[in-house]
Amino acid sequence: MQLTGLSQTEGNPVIAVQINLDKNFAFLEFRSIDETSAAMAFDGIVFQGQSLKIRRPRDYQAMPGGDLPNMNVPGVVSTVVTDSPFKIFIGGLPNYLNDDQ
């Protein structure tokens, strides 16, 4: 997250990790709400040949009036988009496409 400019300060933004190898998932705890929200920008990226699914816990309740932070990461398209009547999903796009195409 430091390399992409998404961490607030120096050091590791992750303070705790719980990994379940049997079910292939992990829980990460971040040091701040903003860094937790910024980590959502990595949803859908391919890591070691697997597409990551990054989600909030099922019991997560957003703070009232909280806006989504600007989570622009070069080369990563976030799946965190505010719901609206204008929102659609298009999947299976090749990685070589750029914004102009």
TrEMBL record:
The organism's place on the tree of life at top rank: Eukaryota
One GO molecular-function entry: RNA binding
Keywords attached to this entry: mRNA processing, mRNA splicing, RNA-binding
Keyword RNA-binding recorded: yes
Tagged with keyword RNA-binding: yes
Domain RRM: 1-59
Biological process, per Gene Ontology: mRNA processing; RNA splicing
SUPFAM superfamilies for this protein: RNA-binding domain, RBD
InterPro entries given in the database record: Nucleotide-bd_a/b_plait_sf, RBD_domain_sf, RRM_dom
Protein's recorded name: RRM domain-containing protein
Organism (species): Adineta ricciae
